[in-house]
Write a structure and sequence with these properties.
23% strand; binds ligand K1U; binds zinc ion
Length: 184
């Protein structure tokens, strides 16, 4: 299995519309395994293929406490079942360290295929409903900060730049200390 690089806001590739998956073949199954590993490594509860620069309708999620019940949604269709929207504090692995409230319907119907190609047809509420709508947005090139004010979007861009710089420095340091260890 392999960790996949996650695209960061405002990378224009995050705006690509995902195409339906034609066949759940070996390549898709490898991508699913790699996406699940990448989601766990990044401490996320969901990941859309668009975020790892694969523009197909594929989502992985795991809302379980022990992070041991991954679920896969292929070619998902999400239908709101209530008109009323509720706010939920969202985060995004493509917008690190930025959290804000987004309002969405909190009951939806999810129709999709699972990793074996079996049909899923379920009613989702609460965090599952929030998360699947957030991930569906990724497949449609929408990022949760799009729902926020211009000022908050600018702040989010600045924050992501800062976080990425810090992460780069930390990576440089860890590479340097690894090569020191090898030289000893
Ligand atoms: O799509 C993503 O970037 C994953 C995202 C999913 C998500 C979390 C919360 C609300 C909506 C969608 C994350 O996993 S962000 C990191 C995270 O685990 C988290 C952040 C805030 C609340 C709960 C979890
Ligand atoms: Zn996201």
């Amino acid at each position: 299995m392999a960790l996949l690089p996650i695209l960061s806001y405002p990378d224009p590739r995050l705006r690509t519309i995902a195409a339906p998956v034609k066949e759940v073949n070996a390549e898709i199954k490898t991508l699913i395994s790699n996406m699940i590993e990448t989601m766990y490594d990044a401490d996320g509860i969901g990941l859309a293929a668009s975020q790892v620069d694969r523009h197909i309708q594929l989502i992985v999620m795991d809302l379980s406490e022990n992070k041991d019940k991954p679920v896969v949604f292929i070619n998902p269709k999400v239908t709101p079942l209530v008109e009323e929207k509720q706010p939920y504090e969202e985060g995004c692995l493509s917008v690190p360290d930025v959290y804000d409230k987004v309002e969405r319907p909190n009951k939806v119907r999810i129709e999709a295929l699972d990793a074996e190609g079996n049909a899923i047809d379920e009613i989702a509420e609460g965090l599952l409903a929030v998360c699947i709508q957030h991930e569906m947005d990724h497949l449609n090139g929408v990022i949760f900060v799009d729902y926020l004010s211009r000022l908050k979007q600018t702040r989010a861009r600045d924050k992501v730049k800062k976080v990425l710089k810090i992460r780069e420095k930390q990576n440089d340091k860890s590479v340097a200390s690894q090569s020191e260890t090898i030289n000893v």
